[in-house]
Amino acid sequence: MGLLSKKDAALITDPFADNNPITIQVLGICSALAITAELKASIVMAVSVLFVMGVGNVVISLMRNIIPSKIRIIAQLIVVATLVIIVDLVLKAVAYDLSKTLGAFIGLIITNCIIMGRFEAFALANGPWRSFLDGIGNAVGYGVILILVGFFRELLGSGTLLGFKVLGDPIEKTGLYALGYENNGFMLLAPMALIVVGIIIWIQRSRNEALIEEN
Amino acid sequence: MSKRTDSNLYTLLFATGMVIVVGSLLAFLASSLKPTIDENKRIEKQQNILYAMGVNENDESSAIFVSKDKVAGEFSKYITKQLVIQGNKTTEDENAYLIDVKKQQTAEKEGKERKLPLFIGEKDGKTFYIAPIRGKGLWDAVWAYVGMDENMVIQGAYFDHKGETAGLGANIKLRFFMDDFIGENLKKDGNFKGIAISKSNNDPKNIDKTDNEVDAIAGATITGDGVSAMIKSELKKYVPYFKTLKTN
User: Fold this and answer.
1) Which has the closest alpha carbon to B239: B204, B203, B194?
2) Which of B9, B29, B140 should one mutate to test binding to chain A, selecting the residue with the greatest count of A CBs within 10 A?
3) To which protein family does this belong (chain B) (predicted)?
4) Is there a contact between A75 and B37 if contact means CB atoms under 8 Å apart?
5) pLDDT of A154-165, one tens digit each?
6) Which residues neighbour B112 within 8 Å (Cβ) at sequence distance 6 or greater?
7) Which of A89, A120, B111, B127 lies most in the core, judged by the most C-beta atoms within 10 Å?
């Protein structure tokens, strides 16, 4: 028997593709638009959400029988805000340079509706281990899309990847720029992130017709 | 049958308990990490000041500070004087770098006399005057350490921000933008003019150092305008001090 049962493994794999939080559930779009102009920022955000969602789901699951239903949303919000503040404080103390790089992204995690969605839809009704797997699965599904969007936006918008000039120098006109290529400044603006997400959704649904909703 | 957790009393007790637990946890964590965080900020200030006078570990294209373990030694080696300018009075203060520019700006708005810190450094026989400045970007604060010579020609600059957009306004802290300021004169025809972040100067390599302009970052109009306004309003306050250098 493997480490995970088939049902448990699906908690990790489903959000990765057929139940992706961004492309299928259309959640977490705000951060996908806001922070994906750079690949590095996308990776950092993906890793931060992975931590907050994994730990947050476990905490909510452990508290699921004692949280009053009337204030459950507030309780969930407090858990996610607490985790985000803890991450922020610890990074400022032990990895100050990294915390500077993250800037406002850490705080932005609080606004990520995927996290609140998984607390509400899964962690409140399942045990800690399954909630942990669900949190990790959804965070990975979210992170993959973020990284894809960040990859194309930085490459086509700035001609760089992780800050390295991969297409040549646009000012000195070397590499691809010598052939007349110009960076597409529109890629750096938020509307283009929405278009890139739309293209990913289009490609995903064209490859799997089961994902297309019937009228 | 209603559950035990549905009662108003339980809800109230739960909410109170949660606030106490979370509040205590965060207060404990914040107070125990504060000395380390403050020390990191203090080191960063010294690194910023040194960067603005060209003491750094830059490679070909990235902006890299002097490493943490070296910064104290380098700071005392290169920074020869730390001044506090308050009105017409200039005094020396070896901890001037710890002056909070934001607090001083608030004091100024309240009608109090503001303290302007200025750091004097010597490197390769050249004197640098480094001023810390602070302004507003698109989302939050932007700030800089600007190294000048006695004629207010910029010799180095370090820009930073609190929450500008990644890939756009946040690029003010990238080397290609900061290096553009080197050689720019803050004065024009003997009067203070500042430096504008311009979208229309048609000088992407920033060869023209007499136009009081540097090339803007695409898609970061408001951040660029904020940087221009910060330079203009904040560095102007140092003009009287630079005039005294001429008369001495």
Assistant:
1) B194
2) B29
3) Belongs to the NqrC family.
4) no
5) 999 989 998 888
6) none
7) A89
Low-confidence ranges of chain B (pLDDT < 50): 1
- Strands A164-165 and A160-161: what pairing? antiparallel
Q: Is B127 part of any domain?
A: yes
Output the six-digit token pair for B23: 């509040």
Q: Do the chains contact at A89 and B37, CB–CB below 8 Å?
A: yes
Q: Quote the ipTM score.
A: 0.78
Residue B6 in any domain: the answer is: no
Give the Cα separation of A23 and A8 in Å (integer). Answer: 22
B211: nearest Cα among B188, B228, B192, B232: B188
DSSP H stretches of helix in A20-112: 29-34, 39-62, 72-94, 96-102, 105-108
In this predicted model, what pLDDT tens digit does every residue of A51-67 receive, in sequence order? 999 999 999 999 999 99
For residues B85 and B65, the answer to whether their CB atoms sit within 8 Å is no
* Overall domain count for chain B: 1
In single-letter form, the type of residue at position A38 comes to E
Q: Determine the residue of chain A that is closest to B217 in CA distance.
A: A185
- From residue B19, alpha-carbon distances to A75, A83, A165, B14, B100 in Å are 10, 14, 49, 9, 32
The answer to the question of residue B3 being in a domain is no
Closest-CA distance of chain B to residue A206, Å: 31
pLDDT score at B3 = 67
CB contact (8 A) between residue B167 and residue A67: no
DSSP state of A161: E
> Chain A contacts of B164, Cβ < 8 Å?
103
* Mean of pLDDT over chain A: 87
Range of the domain at B174: 41-247
Residue B167 placed within a domain? yes
pTM of the prediction?
Answer: 0.78
